[in-house]
TrEMBL record:
Protein name: Heterochromatin protein 1
Domain (Chromo) ranges: 11-70, 159-218
Annotated source species: Aceria tosichella
Location of the protein in the cell: Nucleus
Superkingdom to which the source organism belongs: Eukaryota
Amino acid sequence: MDEDSNDPEEYTVEAIRQKRKTKAGSYEYLIKWAGYPESDNTWEPLENLKCPELIQKFNEQAANERRRKKAEKSNTTATQQPSTSKRPRRDAPSLSGSIHGSEDTLNDDVNSLFVEDDDNEEGIADHGESARKKKKTSNNREALQTNDQVSLKGFERGLAIERILTASIGDDDKLYFFLKWQGRNDIEMVEADELEKKGSYELCRWYRERLYWEKSGSNNAQ
């Protein structure tokens, strides 16, 4: 009685369609099997394949395709880059061909170019000097405005009261309040009369927070 063979059936590789890298770092190839349709293509690891010539041919073709795409991309990028050539500032007289006129006339034409350049340079220098003067004037004006702002006292600066810190009697025996302005870190001493006129709401609130009322209890006669 013949025994059944346990050798696995071998298939013939017709072509390699694709290549991929697995999570483990190994490579697999999509195989087109001879005598089978494309729908039966399977991914096979390298150790299952016995077609080194087809594998080498596929890898070479894939490498050539990558180089071709890289070259096309490089050419496209170079074509899209803007030209860096500079246009001449003015049309210079051509020195080719026949020259007409005397030597003095030609010298005058050439010298006229340099005269125009000198005028342009002087104009640029004058413009730069004018800009520096304007900037200096602007800085001086800002400095004067800052000094005027600092010299103003009390409510003349148009600031709003953030809170009243405390009160004190000055050397002139007048009552002064120390104010913290909104958006500023400096503290200013303002006379009570001025605060009553221009900051009455904050002043009333300050007094109200410091008033303590005592409620007397009724005494029962014994």
